[in-house]
Amino acid sequence: MLLDYVLESADRGFPLAHHNIQQSANVILKGNSSEMQCVGKNWVDRFIERHRDQLQSHWSKLLDTA
Description:
Number of helices: 3
Low-confidence stretches: none
Protein name: HTH CENPB-type domain-containing protein
Distance between the termini: 39 Å
Pfam families: HTH_Tnp_Tc5
Keywords: DNA-binding
Number of domains: 1
Helix content: 40-55%
Oligomer: single chain
Organism: Sphaerobolus stellatus (strain SS14)
Mean pLDDT: 85
GO molecular function: DNA binding
């Protein structure tokens, strides 16, 4: 579910930053009535590592304003 959302966002030209992935995971947790309030500090890094074959982390590049 989350992996599909992350990949679809990137395919549409809007790759998600780490904090956006964390927010989305927290929304899913709350929607599932989980006892956990939010994902842990390093959860996003571990998520990306688990799915490294499908995900790539890139540095954001500033757009030319000229």
